[in-house]
Amino acid sequence: MSQKTEKPTLSGQRIKTRKRDEREKYDPSGFRDLILQGLNEAGSSLDAVYKFLDTAGSKLDYRRYGEVLFDILLAGGHLAPGGTIVTDFDTNKLLRTEVCVFSADDDLDSLKGYAQLITKLVRRYKYLEKTLEDEFKKVLVFLKAFSPEERTKLAKVTCILVGSGLVPSVVLISCLQDHLIKDGIALQFLLDFFKTWLLEKDAPTLWTALRKAGLETRLMEFLPTTRQTPEIFHETFENHGLSSLLDYLKAHQDTSVKKDLQQQVVPLLKNDAPMKEILSLLKDYQNKHSLLEHDLAVLVWKTLMAAVEWNKKEELVAEQAFKHLKKYSALLAAFTQSGKSELALLIKIQEFCYDNMNFMKVFRKIVFLLYKSKFEDFYC
Known about the structure:
The protein is mainly α. Helix content is 63%, strand content 0%.
């Protein structure tokens, strides 16, 4: 009977894992406890609070637990998904601190103190910049879980930090959640943000911040779906003392709309598109964007004159202009139904001819042509 072959075995010394190679267990509750204890000992003095946080940064892992740290500084405790404070089995544990934005006095100076605290901490530990941005993107989604007073304070601090450049304005997009829009929470947060901004800065700087976030054309989306109309939008801003911002936004939005309209009309003119097609496009834009007739009359004139490569010879350009305008005079007539529109167009034609002296000889002909075209349209 043959003996069974013994299987080979591995032998040798067992290598113990070095302590520095062992991955530390993720323990946000432990980190929270240490921060809350330190804040409690520091008291209400923000200078003492910063001194504690600055010193603790060399001992505690801010890089790993930065989200928990900012949860505490904003809301007073570690936030669970949804925005509530994380609880613990040990009911005797301290789970929340009063040294936070939500517990601060609702005046701008007090909230500026907390914004300054966060700013100093992030400048001390630069790696926290991205964590802070992610924190605001997160807490703005949780707005519904906070009280109206807490949301107002958060809006003011967000505004201060965005205004200082520490937090990018793109975080405001996080408010565009269906549940926040439906309940009017997103709109109120935005209004509180705007009102705070205009107390410290002006409309042009706010417009710049909105453009960086791509929000300059999306403000209507903050209103509940059933209320997303230009009339309600304007009324809401006016009722909250934001008329100056409304005027500034409208001027820039009109400029953007007009530029887009010109870019669509010019190719139609160059390709000899039917008059009805061009007129239909202009009317649609007028209704959709609430463009005023006198503004549109001037815009049509500028578009017509920009669509042609004018002859450089003085004796030829006048006749060229007259023929071109005769062809499209009906477009101008369609948007000069009021005396205000007629006057605005006449002034613009006069300015154009003055700036381009080659057209001076045809100025009277142009005016006569437009009046004739309008009356023919009226009697037809």
